[in-house]
Amino acid sequence: EEQLVESGGGLVQPGGSLRLSCASSGFTFSAYSMSWVRQAPGKGLEWVSTITPRRLTGYYARSVRGRFTTSRDDAKNTVYLQMNDLKPEDTAVYYCAKGRWEDEQNRGQGTQVTVSS
Q: Whole-angstrom distance between the N-terminal and C-terminal Cα of the chain?
């Protein structure tokens, strides 16, 4: 059974940092691009970042570029999202996803990130 389990969310003040983790199992992790997407209250799903397999190239939405960094550890089947200089508009449920992130079956259950003073 494929599993994606996000962790690391929480409440942080504006300008603060969080590191999200996504532990994966049940599939060949190293073969897949891994993405982070988020959903803010009352809004649709928004793509945040993707890291490719092998070349480990990271791609980012304009709204987070320069503040967020994604990385992966294939030995641990884990993908990370380092989030710095957080803003209230970053408040959302964050999901990791394998491959095609648009498919709900490819996403985990999510972790809540709240940026507020």
A: 40
pLDDT digits (tens, 9 = 90+) for 32-75: 999 999 999 999 999 999 999 976 788 999 999 999 999 999 99
For strands 45-51 and 34-39, give the pairing: antiparallel
User: Residue 99: is it exposed, middle or buried by C-beta count within 10 angstroms (0-12/13-18/19+)?
Assistant: middle
